[in-house]
Amino acid sequence: MTLWLLGTQLDRTAASLDEHDRVLLIEASGFADRRPYHPHKLTLVFAAMRQFRDDVRARGLTVDYRQADTFAAALDAHFDAHPGDHLTMPRPAAHGAESRLRALVDARGGTLSFVRNPTFLLTPAEFDEWAESRNTNDPDTYRMEGFYHWMRRETGVLMDGDEPAGGEWNYDEENRETPPEDWSPPEPPSFEPDATTREVASWVDAAFETFVDSDQAAPFRWPVTRDQALSALETFVDGRFAEFGPYQDAMVEGEWAMSHSLLSAAINLGLLTPMEVIDRAERAYEAGEVPINSVEGFVRQLLGWREFMRHVYRRSMPEMADANQLDQTAELPPAYWTGETDMACLSEAVGHVREHGYAHHIERLMVLSNFAMVYGADPGKLNEWFHQGFVDAFHWVTTPNVVGMGSFGTDALSSKPYAASGSYINRMSDYCSSCPYAVSRDTGEGACPFNSLYWTFLRENEETLRGTGRMGLMYSHVDDKDAAEWDALEERAATVRTLARQGKL
Ligand code: FAD
Ligand code: SF4
Fold first, then answer.
1. Could you tell me the distance, in angstroms and rounded to a whole number, from the CA of residue 82 to the centre of ligand 2?
2. Which of 275, 293, 388, 498 has the highest Cβ tally under 10 A?
3. What's the pLDDT tens digit per position in 427-454?
4. End of a domain among 281, 315, 349?
5. Cβ–ligand 2 contact at 447 (below 6 Å)
6. Cβ 367 under 6 angstroms from ligand 2
7. End position of a domain, from candidates 285, 315, 345
């Protein structure tokens, strides 16, 4: 009897570790030959697996750590050593993984069963029970907000009896502040790589073509062990949590982390369970260390968004991966790889990805996805870019976030696109003041590229978007523009597209 854990299932607290003869970990590196991933992502995944191996062995348990190109090759070796073995695995999140893995095991004369995956709060059956009590075709009932209220009630998190703690379900109104000019957040935690992690980083450098060369990236700093992940959680709670809420949507030049937790990669790898992070957040609130708007905003991300994304993805695949309701087909502009653009906002956000394999939520949604969407990029190509560039990116989480939310490839996750002009970025950041483009102008040389792209995007997609939820105000502005304004907007948008394609924007 073997417990087979994937590299995204490194849950050291799993009681079932002790209930098996051995733990099987397969370090299958062939995937990294096929695409140029960020070197921090590869180092993080492989180092976390090797650290987990050493940690579990130190507890006296047997770990078979198999390095191979593919799962198939490693399973050949496993079943040579343990013919007819029965394997158990926490239910994987990637679409089709269960059947693929089971077929590999069956073909080698073994058996594979799946158990609850502790890196998510709900089993598929539990989510489906909620979903089936809703009309899944009715956007008002099959939405994250309703699910989140249900989760609060089910789990009792941030509840005062039947009422939400503090009296409101949602404190978004208080969470759209921009910090004062002299503000800077405490330095985010940095974990000095030990010998194991250094060895992985050198191997990654030598063996793979990567998203950026490692000397163009910042020094590797991500937590790769459970102890480091717990320490990252404590550092967040002590130093940045209180300001997480108010500055959740803000962007400040030179501040890649703001007051975000930076915990997504640790949670997605299983180093922290979502419920222990939620519990810690709730305790900080109960101890009076963080205000309700910060704790509620944070809890909503994990109890609501993360879980909702995982299950909507599961229920919407395989269609979601190729969804493209706006029929957008452009390649991503080269600036997404080089970071070379005069647009201060895009240069900053791509720079964060190149340096850290990370950008915070609003950069992901309102800069990187927003620009790609109004520019006309293919959602699948944007999804692929996110998948390669981010340390926390796995198919179950990028596909709904990028194709659904960021590109409006499907309306499964939001009733309208997250499209905005430069004025949104100007309101939420200090980027525009140092940008050579003029955010106040829509047309002509030097006008903010976001503006003409935004208006022409709305016009080009009018048939799909005009009738969708909450687009009325935007289309009233579209209707106010006369023919001469549209000519100038079209001309500027065409120039912006050409310059972007040529890497000269
Ligand atoms: P915080 O802002 O501190 O939030 C706390 C936690 O909530 C995160 O650690 C994460 O676990 C969870 N969370 C918040 N929002 C989401 C969400 N929409 N979906 C899933 N979990 C969420 N998240 C990933 O984990 N991996 C991705 O590859 C990823 N790609 C994204 C792409 C786009 C276009 C968008 C709009 C969002 C994406 N997200 C992704 C969601 C979110 O942006 C990140 O989880 C968050 O920015 C990670 O930083 P943090 O840990 O500092 O998060
Ligand atoms: Fe971005 Fe436009 Fe502002 Fe420049 S002016 S930072 S391109 S929104």
1. 60
2. 293
3. 999 999 999 999 999 999 999 999 999 9
4. 315
5. no
6. no
7. 315
Q: Which residue's CA lies nearest to atom 13 of ligand 1?
A: 301
CB neighbours (10 Å) of residue 405?
21
- Statement to judge: residues 305 and 351 lie in one domain: no
Ligand 1, pocket-test mutation among 401, 405, 407, most atoms within 8 A of CB: 401
- The string of DSSP letters for 313-351 reads HHHHTTHHHH--TT---BPPPTHHHH---S-HHHHHHHH
Residue with tokens 């050593």: 81
Tokens of 440: 């106040």
Low-confidence ranges of the chain (pLDDT < 50): none
Looking at residue 471, its pLDDT comes to 82
Domain encompassing residue 264:
124-185+222-315
Closest atom of ligand 1 to CA, residue 360: 47
pLDDT value of residue 5: 95
Give yes or no for residue 302 CB within 6 A of ligand 1.
yes
Which strands make up the sheet holding 111-115, listed edge to edge?
Answer: 63-68, 22-28, 2-5, 86-90, 111-115
pLDDT score for 420 = 96
Report the residue count for the chain.
505
Whether residue 307 is found in the same domain as residue 166: yes
In angstroms, how far apart are the furthest CA atoms of the chain?
Answer: 76
Under DSSP, is residue 494 helix (H, G, I), strand (E, B) or coil? helix
Count of domains forming the chain = 3
Judge if 128 and 111 occupy the same domain: no
- What's 355-396 look like in SS3? HHCCCCHHHHHHHHHHHHHHHCECHHHHHHHHHHHCCCCCHH
Domain assignment present for 268: yes
Residue 359 and residue 420: Cα distance in Å, rounded?
A: 18
Q: How much is the pLDDT for 20? A: 87
Pairing of strands 2-5, 22-28: parallel
pLDDT at 141: 73
Shared-domain flag, residues 290 and 386:
no
Q: What is the pLDDT of residue 89?
A: 94
Nearest-angstrom CA–CA distance, 339 and 503: 10
Query: How far apart are the CA of 87 and the centre of ligand 1, in A?
Result: 31
Give the pLDDT score at 136.
Answer: 67
Residue 119 CB less than 6 A away from ligand 1: no
Instruction: From 260, 309, 268, select the one nearest 414 (Cα to Cα).
Output: 309
Q: Residue whose CA is closest, atom 2 of ligand 2? A: 448
Q: Which pLDDT value is given to residue 13?
A: 66
**Are the C-beta atoms of 211 and 254 separated by less than 8 Å?**
no
* pLDDT (0 to 100) of residue 134: 79
Q: Is the CB of 389 under 6 A from ligand 1?
A: no
SS3 assignment for 260-321: CCCCHHHHHHCCCCHHHHHHHHHHHHHCCCCCHHHHHHHHHHHHHHHHHHHHHHHHHCCHHH
Q: Are residues 272 and 395 in the same domain?
A: no
Q: Using one digit for the tens of pLDDT, what is the confidence trace for 278-304?
A: 999 999 999 999 999 999 999 999 999
